[in-house]
Amino acid sequence: DIQMTQSPSSLSASVGDRVTITCRASQSIRTYLNWYQQKSGKAPKLLIYAASSLQGGVPSRFSGSGSGTDFTLTVSGLQPEDFATYYCQQSYTSPLTFGGGTKVEIK
Amino acid sequence: QVQLVQSGAEVKKPGASVKVSCKPSGYTFNSYYIHWVRQAPGQGLEWMGWINPYSGGTKYAQKIQGRVTVTWDMSISAAYMELSRLRSDDTAVYYCARDLVGGLYNSFEYWGQGTLVTVSS
Fold first, then answer.
1. Minimal CB count within 10 Å: which of A60, B6, B35, B108?
2. How far from the centroid of its chain's Cα atoms is residue B68's Cα?
3. CB distance from B30 to chain A under 8 Å?
């Protein structure tokens, strides 16, 4: 199975900050990488697919980059509604696997 | 608009089975795979498997293969996930999710609201 490792597991940030979350795959997954946002008690929401494609309706302050084994999710100008947990997920091969999550909290 | 509506919470005893339904609406059902993902309390996300509503084909995570069965009922256009021989560590919120594009893209664009399954003696 492909292991997905996210870092950090949690971070504290202020409104307006630029936040970067990294995700590393245990083998190359080319650009088969997705990012989700999950708020407490809610289903996850797709933010980025294919490593860097912004899902429709997602604000442009969210961006993704990377290929192979190393990926990043960047939030440029954190907003109050962005405080949540973020997960990466590889869509390269079964079993589909997720990173452990990054909880973004208010500083 | 696209919606996936799941059945309600369940409480089961260890060793029993549970069957969760997922009723999509707002799109052409046969064109999109349906996945099942679960999340134990306070934990991360775990993919369980998918079904192709057009062919009925399925694929499961090896970890739970043999205990999980995903089906599609064409008569009412609904997906079902049945998990058997339940254990306490199967306690989780179970989500169905629709794939991003027609065919198998392995990304989850639309999600159900989740169904809490509690396994307790």
1. A60
2. 10
3. no
> What is the rounded CA–CA span in Å between residue B55 and residue A100?
33
Query: Quick check: B102 pLDDT over 80?
Result: no
Residue A100 C-beta-side C-alpha neighbours within 13 Å: 8
- Omega prior to A95 cis, within 30 of 0: yes
In Å, how far are A16, B50, B86, B112 from B41, measured between CA atoms? Answer: 31, 22, 16, 17
Closest CB from B47, B100, B113 relative to A95: B47
Strands lying side by side in the sheet with A70-76: A4-7, A18-25, A70-76, A62-67
A56 and chain B in contact, CB less than 8 A? no
pLDDT tens by residue, B12-28 = 999 999 999 999 999 98
B20: chain A residues, CB-CB within 8 Å:
none
B104: distance to nearest CA of chain A, Å?
10
Task: For residue B19, give how far its alpha carbon lies from the nearest alpha carbon of chain A (Å).
Answer: 19
